[in-house]
Amino acid sequence: MIRLERRPQPSRLWVWCTPLLAVALTMLAGGLMFAALGKDPIEAIRTIFFDPLFNPQFASYSRPQLLVKAGPLILIAIGLALGFRAGVWNIGAEGQYIMGAICGAAVALALYPLDSPIVFPAMVLAGLLGGFAWAMIPGVLRTAFNTNEILVSLLLVYVAEQILAAMALGLLRNPDGGGFPGSRNLQQYPSAANLELIAGTGMHWGVVTAFITVILAYIVLTRHVLGFHIRVTGSSPRAARFAGVVPARLILICLGVSGALAGMAGLYEVAGPAGQITIDFNSGYGFTAIIVAFLGRLHPVGILLAGLLMALTYIGGELAQFMLGLPAAAIQLFQGMLLFFLLGVDVLSNYRIRIGRPGVA
Amino acid sequence: MDLSTFNWLPLLAALMVASTPILLAGIGELVVEKAGVLNLGVEGMMITGAVCGFAMAIATESAVIGFVSAAVGGAVLSLLFGVLTQVLLSNQVATGLALTLFGLGLSAVLGQNYIGVKGIEISAVNLGPLADIPFLGPVLFQHDGMVYVSLLMVVAVWYFLNRTRAGLVLRAVGESHDAAHALGYKVVRIRLAAIAFGGACAGLGGAYLSLIRVPQWTEGMTAGAGWLALALVVFASWKPGRVLIGAYLFGGLTVLQLNLQAAGVKVPVELLSMSPYVITILVLVLISSGRRGRQTAAPASLGRAFHATT
Fold first, then answer.
1. Which of A34, A137, A144, B180 could cross-link to A39 by cystine, CB 3.0-4.6 Å?
2. pLDDT tens-digit profile of B197-238?
């Protein structure tokens, strides 16, 4: 008989081993899935995980893409992880990302064609505030009316998507665009463009911000009283009260920070890689970031690595689509599988597996 | 807008059809939550049901087989969640989200060959003279079978939860899994059964979208219906009758919004399209603020993991 025995403390060894185990299991299950789709599994796995980095034919293009894709994922996931640790479930980062992008781009378009070093910082600020404000809706509703923040933040994603459509077709549409939907291309507006900082690396301001955020989040979580409040609330809300945590304030902080980071990520994306506000410029980073946060064990350094790995599956997925004709959705399925395996093998870090009958105490 | 030219009859007739997907998914999730499990994967199960049902209905040209396969597909997917949360004791919120993300990916892969394929014809059930009653006939009695199945389902769930011993046990498990365990009830098995039922219902709801309401397969076609079903359970204060009322109110709203769009009202289309979500949020706020300080109607063990120590 197999029993689970709760560990008094999560195993430190397994906490860091389970993500690796989950990745290995996902490769195995993913290989089976690719085989079921009629592709050579080994080739598919190699195309996704190896070719983008090491194949001389593609690496020059795909290596910079790694940072371009990992930047927003890490930035959003760091914010989400703070909340998830405290039991505040912001799952609407996609909406905050969209609103940040809209607000930031609106500032740029309002200032167009002003040539000034003020433009880009103003956009970043607007993006931050846009995401922050959108996340404050579930935050205030939760603290003032006790409304479930999971449902509200998620439902607001659909509202944000409609606002995005309205903006791309109306208010922010390029007046010189011949009636086509979509805003001016910010890449062609030097003061507003979020360009590559070091040629050939993919490093742009969003990636820089993501790296700084990783460091700040690490310091906050390990050295600051806020981090202590977050951790204690997550493990025992009742004990947190005695430790002087004001639950409402913590909820607002967690949602506000994650919203602001998601909003900034959206702005960096729209001013850089995406270039313009279009109906579907958002590519689901807000949802993938949830996987990144968990894969990184809700820990800043873990999230950094997880973000890079998830970026790799995006790039490798595109490559596999192009080279092997793998359906685009297969990679989404692959990412979902990864989260499943991770949550499943997590049992190993919190429980011991005992085989045999329980002894008499 | 000129309201006198606005045709109310098709609006009312479409109400029941528009409500059925979230009614089915909502009543299933109600049973799951009554057993103390919060499954946030409704959206993923719905869309998987939608693609399973559509594919099987096309293959066999039978709507019944389509719906049955959708229910099976939803239940199988939900058991993934069940095994993870009940056996491997993972966090229910995170696992539910994973189920949604996984289901969206899975459905897109399964459905890639069905995009643009025309659905099968499903005719209304023949209710004889009832269907010929003026006004009431088209509104109430000229629908497909699933509309009536969903209504029966609400009655059945109400009867099961409130009038049967098994329903009482299920509610006990949801209120206090430790007490239920001490009494000798198999908490994990009961919860797994509830989760599978919820999955099957969500699958049916999804298939209703792809087979009857739309009827076509498109990627991401549920567009948040699963989340609305989750909100519906909160709105209903975990009572089957109120799930029905809530679903029909919501269905009415959706139909009205679509009809206003079609009638070319001077309101931006996007504003109308976002109205179901905005109104759901407002309703959630009203419901939750009305219960401030007092105890909530939610099952006491909702979302908590159960680990038998003895």
1. A34
2. 999 999 999 999 888 888 888 888 888 889 889 888 888 888
Please check whether residue A118 lies inside any domain of the structure: yes
Q: Which long-range contacts (CB under 8 A, 24 or more apart) does A9-18 make?
A: A10/A349, A10/A350, A11/A348, A11/A349, A11/A350, A14/A348, A14/A349, A15/A297, A15/A349, A16/A297, A17/A348, A18/A342, A18/A345, A18/A346, A18/A348, A18/A349
B33-58 residue pLDDT tens: 999 999 989 999 999 999 999 998 88
Q: Is residue B212 part of a domain?
A: yes
Q: Is the pLDDT assigned to residue A208 strictly greater than 80?
A: yes
Q: Is the peptide bond before A113 cis (omega within 30 degrees of 0)?
A: yes
The mean pLDDT value of chain A amounts to 85
Which of B66, B78, B19, B106 has the alpha carbon at shortest distance from B201? B78
Q: Is A354 helix (H, G, I), strand (E, B) or coil?
A: strand
Using an 8 Å CB-CB cutoff, list chain B residues near A157: 224
Catalogue the E-assigned strands of chain B: none
Cα A81 from Cα A75, distance rounded (Å): 10
Rounded Cα gap, residues B210 and B217, in angstroms: 6
Q: How many whole angstroms separate alpha carbon A104 and alpha carbon A130?
A: 8
Q: For residues B38 and B97, give the distance between their C-alpha atoms in angstroms, rounded to a whole number.
A: 11
- Split into its structural domains, chain A has a count of 1
Interface mutation target, options A2, A340, A353, chain B, most CBs of B under 10 Å: A340
- A181 contact residues in B (CB cutoff 8 A): none
Q: Is residue B4 part of a domain?
A: no
pLDDT score, position A100: 93
Query: B112 contacts in A (CB within 8 Å)?
Result: 327, 329
Using the structure block, give the residue that is written with the tokens 């931050």. Answer: A128
Mean pLDDT score, A282-301: 87
